[in-house]
Amino acid sequence: MANLSKSTKGVALVVENEPFMREAVEDILDSIGIEVFSAEDGHEGVATYLSYKDKIDLVILDLRLPGLAGAEILRMLRSINPLVKVIVASGYDEQEIERQLKGQHASILRKPYNADALLTTVQTVLGY
Question: pTM for the complete prediction?
């Protein structure tokens, strides 16, 4: 697993419509001391980010969500905070991810992923 200890602090927002995936990511992040807010769709994700934007260090965003697409959510988050750190989780191939993001930069986490891949990506994005 990634070299993060339980004393690591931070706050993440997980926007994922699949309850099992959302809860798994919450548990993994919680195990290393990262507080987690979660949202099951884009509208809830953007609203949660607006409410806690000064506290949230990282957003983990599923690219394929009902309603608002992940790329649209990313644009909305960047309009709120151009420096927001985002990990886009997707099962699409790299070309499709890039096509959907339309030039927006984000770290990519390919689905399916395991705890080690998640923690390594979080560690890299947050600079731990």
Answer: 0.90
